[in-house]
Specification:
Helices cover 43% and strands 13% of the residues. With 199 residues, it is of the alpha/beta class. It has a 5-stranded parallel sheet, sandwiched between helices. The longest helix is centred in the C-terminal third of the chain and has 15 residues. The protein is elongated, with a radius of gyration of 20 Å. The relative contact order is 0.15.
Length: 199
């Protein structure tokens, strides 16, 4: 694994989950509570102890931190009581990267201390939604090809008109279409009309 610290942000939930799943796959077997921990708003205070605790019987531990947007402070507010990400924690994280893979997830602004820290020491991944439907049609074509099916750009655009632009919804609808067409290689307009959920 190239990096041991990641930050995944952006409004595209589908792409965020996809990025997280790639990291999980690279970590091998994950046993919750031993070499796999997920922290959120209520349990974030445990991050310091998780970072300094070795994974029993495993080479690395995956720590996922779901950061609520209200706790990502900018440098201007770094001295406030809500500043959970401090220098001591940053130092402990850096000293633990030989045994930990840490993923921060959430709507984290580029000007926050956390974002700048990960950018300097690891990898930040921005998962932003496409600016227009035009950008999504080729993605639908690619998604169909990954599953051994073909769909024309015209039909991909038709799918967008029917199902909307949410990638998670489109991915689910594509799976339904793939199951529906069976051995047929081509996803045609009439199949989209019949199976697609209208939004």
């Amino acid at each position: 694994m190239e990096n041991s610290i990641y930050l995944i942000t952006g409004e595209d939930i589908f792409e965020r989950e996809k990025e997280l799943n790639k990291i999980k796959e690279n970590c091998g077997e994950l046993v919750k509570g031993i070499n796999f921990v997920t922290l959120d708003k209520e349990t974030m205070y445990l991050l310091h102890s998780e970072v300094t605790t070795y994974p029993f019987g495993y080479l690395k531990k995956l720590i996922i931190v779901n950061v609520p947007s209200k706790v990502t402070n900018t440098e201007e507010t770094a001295t406030s009581k809500n500043d959970w990400f401090n220098e001591e924690l940053a130092e402990d994280i850096l000293h633990s990267l030989d045994v930990n893979v840490i993923v921060f997830m959430g709507d984290i602004q580029a000007r926050s201390k956390l974002y700048k820290f990960v950018q300097k020491n690891g990898k930040c991944v921005e998962c932003n939604k496409p600016k227009s439907k035009k950008d999504l049609a080729p993605w639908i074509v690619s998604l169909a090809r990954q599953n051994g099916k073909n769909i024309s750009l015209e039909n991909a655009n038709h799918m967008l008109q029917i199902c909307g632009t949410d990638k998670l919804m489109l991915s689910n609808e594509m799976q339904k279409l793939i199951d529906y067409v069976g051995d047929n290689d081509e996803i045609q307009k009439q199949y989209i009309e019949k199976v697609g959920i209208r939004t």
